[in-house]
Each structure stands twice: as structure tokens, then as C-alpha cells.
Amino acid sequence: FAAREAPKPLASRHALVTSGPTYEPIDPVRYIANRSSGKQGHAVAASLAALGARVTLVSGPVRLPDPPGVDVVAVETAAEMLAACRAALPADIFVAAAAVADWRVEAAGQKLKKDGGGPPTLALSENPDILASLSAPSPDRPALVIGFAAETNDIVAYARAKRLRKGCDWIVANDVSPATGTFGGDRNSVYVIRADGTEEAWENLAKTEVARRLADAISNHFETGKK
Ligand code: CTP
Ligand code: CA
């Protein structure tokens, strides 16, 4: 007879994860994007699913396969990402790993043409902050909200301030200075900063290993009930 499998630690939990870049249209044929590959966010979604969570992954355009056992919602713009996240609530866990464009363009309805009048001026407006919005106190707020902070310098100091500003419980600060090759690469060096004041450095690990450690930390958090 078959041995019964041990229950997985995040079974019964719903995790919402954002990943990848957003694309912000300039006109019907052009857009502004960024260099996020989605590797870290997709790996987090896969690791949470491996621990038994039901995972909704809201992702901007990436060249990655859907992680196994994860519900993927494909979006392009920051506004679509926010709407898809809200639609996926309630969730116990929210991990904001996407590189959301800070600004969108007031997009033209038709293709902009070289009409002899010189280059167009792009009018930008600020995008909604998905992490801050889902972190805000509300009956729908996920019990554990985790942001990422991409920094090139003064990483820990900026990340501490960012965690407070966003209202999230933990922030995973990653060093994206060009020498690290983090953007698009397979490795990451991160600092995990928690509301309880604990800080840990996880240095020079595969993004998949960062994801496994984060999923383990999340599962421990729910087991011990501490923030
Ligand atoms: N984020 C978000 N929505 C935005 C911008 C950022 O959800 N419109 C999330 C990211 O997914 C990440 C965290 O906020 O989890 C921090 O993103 P980051 O770009 O480092 O922070 P910003 O507040 O945009 O500050 P800046 O880019 O100026 O450093
Ligand atoms: Ca930003």
C-alpha cells in the first residue's frame, strides 16, 4: 500500500505574485519597457506552488514558460497588472516581484508619424503603485506582503525606507548594479528586511535558490505566526 504524503506547508494558502516588466504604449506600435526578465518572480511562484500554495502569477511580457501548477494571468501595462491583482484577491500572501514601469505615456490612438515637425514630446504620468496599494490597510489586505527593491547603491538604507513607504511587511532588496549582471541574469544577491527588524543577506545565489529560501521563510512565518 502507498504511504500517505505529508501535507505541504502552504496547502490552503493563496499566493499572489507579480513578475516581469510592464509595457507602456506610446502609440499602437511602440512601447516603453524595462530589462526585467521575470526569472526571479517566476521562480518565487514556482517555489510557493511546490510548497502547496495555490498561486496566481500576474506577469508582464516575458520569454519564460509558465511555472508548473501556477495560474498565470498575462498583462501588459501597470494599470492592467493592478486590475488583475485586485481581481485575484483575497490572498494570504502577496509577493511583488514585477518591475512595474513608474510612468506611463499618454498614448496616441494612431501611429505617430515623422511629419517634419521634429520629434514628439512624450507626456508621462505616474503609474499606480501596486505594492503600496495592496499593502494599505483594508479587509482584503494579504496577511503577508513582500516587496522587492531594485537598487544600485546604498541598498539596505534605500530598502528600509522603501519598506516603510510602501507599508509592506518584508522587502527583498536586490543589487542591480550593472557589475552584478542581475537584470536578465540567473543569479541574485539580496537582503531580506523584515518589519520585526531582522535583516539577512543572501549573497550570490541562483535566482531559483533565492526563491526556495523565500518560500521557506514564508512557510515558517505562517507556522510560527510571527511577522
Ligand atoms: N512596485 C509596484 N508598482 C509600482 C512600482 C513598484 O508594485 N508602480 C513594486 C515593485 O514590484 C517592487 C517594489 O514596488 O516590489 C519596489 O519597486 P521599485 O521600483 O524598487 O520602487 P519605487 O517605489 O518605484 O522606487 P524607485 O524606482 O524610484 O527606486
Ligand atoms: Ca520603480
TrEMBL record:
GO cellular component annotations of the record: phosphopantothenoylcysteine decarboxylase complex
BP GO terms, sorted: coenzyme A biosynthetic process; pantothenate catabolic process
Sites where the protein binds CTP: D102, K111, P128, D129, I130, L131, F148, K162, K166
Cofactor binding description: Binds 1 FMN per subunit.
GO molecular function list: FMN binding; metal ion binding; phosphopantothenate--cysteine ligase activity; phosphopantothenoylcysteine decarboxylase activity
Keyword Lyase among record annotations: yes
Domain of life: Bacteria
Enzymatic reactions: N-[(R)-4-phosphopantothenoyl]-L-cysteine + H(+) = (R)-4'-phosphopantetheine + CO2; (R)-4'-phosphopantothenate + L-cysteine + CTP = N-[(R)-4-phosphopantothenoyl]-L-cysteine + CMP + diphosphate + H(+)
Cofactor: FMN; Mg(2+)
Keyword entries, A-Z: Decarboxylase, Flavoprotein, FMN, Ligase, Lyase, Magnesium, Metal-binding, Multifunctional enzyme
Entry's EC annotation: 4.1.1.36, 6.3.2.5
Pathway of action: Cofactor biosynthesis; coenzyme A biosynthesis; CoA from (R)-pantothenate: step 3/5; Cofactor biosynthesis; coenzyme A biosynthesis; CoA from (R)-pantothenate: step 2/5
Region Phosphopantothenate--cysteine ligase, residue ranges: 15-227
Domain DNA/pantothenate metabolism flavoprotein C-terminal residues, every copy: 10-220
Family designation: In the N-terminal section; belongs to the HFCD (homo-oligomeric flavin containing Cys decarboxylase) superfamily. In the C-terminal section; belongs to the PPC synthetase family.
Primary role: Catalyzes two steps in the biosynthesis of coenzyme A. In the first step cysteine is conjugated to 4'-phosphopantothenate to form 4-phosphopantothenoylcysteine, in the latter compound is decarboxylated to form 4'-phosphopantotheine.
Protein name: Coenzyme A biosynthesis bifunctional protein CoaBC
Species: Niveispirillum lacus
Residues of the full protein shown: 181 to 407 of 407
